[in-house]
Write the structure tokens for this entry.
Amino acid sequence: MPPIRTGSEVKPRVKRIFPPITNRLSLSPERSPSPPLLTLNQQITVPTAISESTSAWRGRRGGGNSARGSRSNNNGRASTPMIGDSPDPDIIPENRRVPKPRGEVGHPGSNGYSLLSVLSWDKTVYTTIQKAVHEQADAHLNTTVGISKQPDDLVLRVLQKVAHRFLILGKYDGYWPARDMLKLYLKNKSERAWRG
């Protein structure tokens, strides 16, 4: 490279060379995280008939003709889906159940959460369980007042009936998805009754 001449002195031309960053940067391989104990994004299938294993489990418990077991219609198909992979929600220990998220249900913008997005359930599973919660609330609770004004034993009875029908709720601490559905339903029904 030729020198730069300025007046009477000669300055050598300085060529600035920047080495590529990739020669200096070395990335260590990352350890993949261990899988979670409970997979929240699990694909849930809704079978159309009661499985033999579930029927055998009911036979061992002596509940062959209980309300939980008598869900088939004339075609031998289940009229309501069995959702879950565990025959009894009490099998999952309490320390491995999914805890309730922070915040209040129905207020996703202000430190709350949207129940459907937090659960990551299929829309049909969500609406099926939601309809069952609404049916049980209409049958056992006073829908003109909110959940805080309801007797605790009746609220627990509704939650347990829905949890026995939909086994997936046994994975959640205190059946909080069903409780949140119940809370929103009673809130909306009581507001309509108060206005109307």
About this structure: The longest helix spans residues 176-195. The CA atoms of residues 115 and 132 lie 16 Å apart. The chain is about 35% helix and 5% strand. The mean pLDDT is 74.
